Each structure stands twice: as C-alpha cells, then as structure tokens.
DNA sequence: CGCATATTTCGATTCATGTCGAAATAAACT
DNA sequence: AGTTTATTTCGACATGAATCGAAATATGCG
C-alpha cells in the first residue's frame, strides 16, 4: 500500500497554492515559517491557508510546532526524500531507465 | 510559471488509479502498453481509464501512439526527470538539504 | 461495404476540493 | 479576568474529479 501513500503526498503537492506554500517552507529552511508569515507571503485567506497546511501536515510533508504565540511550520525533508525515492524507483528517474519487463506479472 | 506546470504533473500523479497506470507504463518500459492491456491489468472501466490516460497525456507524463488497431501508451521519461528535478531543486531533495536561509528574502 | 475490435466521447451521478468570511479557540500580556 | 494577536474550525458555495454504462468513432479484415 505504499503507492497509496505516495499518491497522497503527490496529491498534496499537486495544487499550485499548496506547492507554493511548501516551496516557501523549503526556502525558509530549518528555521521554518510561522503561519502568519506564510499567509502574508502567499496572499490567501488565513482559513484557506490553514486548510492547505493541514493537508500538507497530514501527508507528512510539513510539521507544525507551537512557538509561543505563533505556529511554526517546517518542511519535513525525509518525507520528500522518500517521495522522490519512490518516483525514482517505482516510476523511473535516471535518464536510461528503459528496463523492459521486470516484475510486471502479465 | 514553472510551478504551475509542476503542480499539474504532481496532481496527475496524485491519484492512486493514475499512479498505478503510470507505474504500469514505466514497468512496461520502452515497449509501452496498449490501452486494453492497461485496462485488464488495472481493472477499471475503459472509459475511466481513458479519462485518466488523457490527464496523464495532458500533463506530458505519457504519450499515446496509434499502432494499427490499438493505442500504444508509453511513459514519457523526460517529463518525470524534469519533475524530479523540480522537486529536488525547488523543494529540496538530498539528505542534507538543511540549507537555512538561502534566497528566502525574509 | 459491413463486421469486429479497440478506444474515446457523452451524459449522468456522486463525492471531494478550493475558497471565503465569520465565529471559536489558544496563548500571552496587562 | 479581559484584551489583543494568532490560528483553526465551521458553514456555505461553486467548481471540478472520479466513476460508470451506453453510444459514437476509428482501424483493419473479409
């Protein structure tokens, strides 16, 4: 059922707004970014951002952590690495990758 | 506007059925797979598969080519490579990737 | 030309998504 | 305790997605 999980993560990233959010978090690096900052930067309603953030968190791509009065969000790199691994592995990656039948039990 | 494109491709892969379809095509390798084969393998209605296939094609992840009476589908690797590149680049990838501020013009 | 096979398009249905504003909750400060 | 700031949850709405079966289209064969 690994495929289901990968699909869920891909879906989470497969929305322009969420991808923008996620990218902003990645760029923010280890320090993360408070929700409010994100909102100002991306320019959407707070409730909408919260909704998207929740989906990213549920997909394991982002972590949220209370930091006094604000909620600090951070990109969770291991998940992204695993996802890229899945794509590269299950779904090809390297230039060559023209492996014919492999385990495709016809 | 590259982000929009990446989001579109991620969304295309972000559905379990489509991801299954795509993976089947990748596994089929350079020979590709006719639609009918895919349908039998995945077990969904032909119309549903056609719909999903269309989305994968529109996202540039799959190519379709008439082969006499059947339509041969193939995974289009360059797109996947570019997508992985985008994720690795814009959205982190390598294990380390704890680059703090970089261009995050806070 | 008409039939058989392969695939898509159409129409319908059901459910999920993206979005917002307003109200509720959480945490800190006075 | 009350106020302010930060964020989420709620309710609503419009739009899009996923799915199917049936009908339409395309290709090759006899």
From TrEMBL, chains A, B:
Keywords: DNA-binding, Transcription, Transcription regulation
CDD domains reported for this sequence: HTH_ARSR
Molecular function terms from GO: DNA binding; DNA-binding transcription factor activity
UniProt keyword annotation of Transcription present: yes
Gene3D superfamilies: Winged helix-like DNA-binding domain superfamily/Winged helix DNA-binding domain
Keyword DNA repair set for record: no
Domain HTH arsR-type, first and last residues per copy: 1-95
Pfam short name (any one): HTH_20
InterPro entries: ArsR-like_HTH, HTH_ArsR_DNA-bd_dom, Metal_resp_trans_reg, WH-like_DNA-bd_sf, WH_DNA-bd_sf
Cited NCBIfam families: HTH_metalloreg
Protein name: Helix-turn-helix transcriptional regulator
The species this protein was found in: Amaricoccus solimangrovi
